[in-house]
Design brief:
Layout: E1 3-5, E2 19-22, E3 28-31, E4 34-37, H1 43-51, E5 56-57, H2 58-65, H3 71-87, E6 93-95, E7 99-102, E8 107-108, H4 109-121, H5 136-139, H6 149-175, H7 179-192, H8 197-210, H9 213-231, H10 237-243, H11 252-256, H12 260-267
Parallel strand pairs: 2-8
Antiparallel strand pairs: 1-4, 2-3, 3-4, 5-7, 6-7
Helix pairs in contact: 2-3, 4-6, 6-7, 6-8, 7-8, 8-9
Length: 268
Amino acid sequence: MDTHQVDLPVRDPEYLGGAVVHLFAGPYVTVGSRRHEVPEGSKQLLAFVALRRRRVERRQAAGTLWPFGDDERASGNLRSALWRLRRAGVNVLVADKWSLAVSADVLVDLHLVERWATRLIDGRARPGDLAVPPWVADALDLLPGFYDDWALMERERIRQRILHALEALSETLATSGRFADAIEAAMLATSAEPLRESAQRALIKAHIAEGNVTEARRSFSAYRELMRRELGVAPSDDFSAALGIPPPRPSTAARGRIPQSRLAASIA
């Protein structure tokens, strides 16, 4: 079995000794700090079952993953995928005659990340939640290379969940005076979704909280230009008004300059 050291996205000590199914940048499995590769022919099955939080009927899994051909062939493909997992020593699924599930003592990184996001969004963050996770970039791209409908829908769902969590994290960190971390969290969200208004608002608010009005204006100008270039529209008046960005002061030269309309009238 091919194994090598891996940097786990699961940091809590209570998780580090057991098996974890990784769906971000995966699927693969870790046991402790060792990474175990999943056979190619079994990746879809493992991912499909791990995404669920309940037992999955074998017929449903077989029909979804192998929709072409008859039921007997699909069931045969499912049995082959399970056999490859066992042969590779990846014993994270339990199966009976009718259903499949992730073993009760096996964790799934998606579920752990979703709990982290929920705590932040609900305002129940633990001290350990208030850090920009090193794995968040991978977490924004669930199951890369999977293009089936069931994978695409779950990818977008968790992507939105994590973006909301990063925005909440940025606001909480800014309130706590951790401005550099607050800006980093917001920038991760804006990098993932540059046109996302709530992420841009979180970034600008973090700059303002730190007292960097110039950076706030620069971020707002960049976002306004992006909106104009990509969508042909400008941010709403409410967007800028709600941020409380002080208007730029006119320069001394501008204050002393006679408006063109008045200048034309005096010449006439």
